[in-house]
Write a structure and sequence with these properties.
The protein is an alpha+beta fold. Helix content is about 25%, strand content about 45%. It has one helix and seven strands; from the N terminus they run H-E-E-E-E-E-E-E.
Length: about 140
């Protein structure tokens, strides 16, 4: 390989590295900015007695306001078998009711997770998520 060819390959490699670095930096900065403007608040009527229904509520705040949009709320807990729920709404609010009863769900601590995505006609992208621990007695 000639010196010119080696120099060209090295320059190309350095250029690709620089482009990758710039793109990665942009993605990290954009992600930080997007996440900072959203806050997800989860509430429930837990703790609950084994066999009763627990009501979970999630509110999505955008710069401190409850703004309408096109949202998907994904709910899941860490119980086995797991409870899952998904809904698409124009409201910044979602509810999920779960009953922990029977031998499959012994009393104890569980975690509920909510993920919120913004949905558009091109792509859905994650806005924020939050977890909440709760007790079934």
């Amino acid at each position: 390989m000639t010196d010119t060819r080696q120099r060209q390959n090295r320059q190309l490699s350095e250029m690709l590295y620089s482009i990758t670095y710039v793109v990665y930096s942009f993605v990290v900065i954009a992600s930080t900015v997007v996440c900072e403007k959203y806050e997800l608040k989860i509430t429930s009527n837990a703790p609950a007695v084994h066999g009763s229904t627990i009501e979970f509520h999630a509110d999505l705040y955008t710069y401190g306001e409850l703004d309408k949009g096109k949202y998907k709320f994904y709910w899941k807990d860490d119980a086995i078998p797991q409870h899952n729920y998904q809904n698409t709404t124009s409201e910044p609010h979602s509810d999920f009711s779960v009953t922990y009863s029977g031998d499959d769900y012994p009393p104890g601590w569980y975690t509920m997770e909510v993920v919120v995505e913004y949905t558009s006609w091109i792509i859905d992208y994650r806005l924020t998520s939050k977890r909440m621990e709760f007790e079934v007695t």
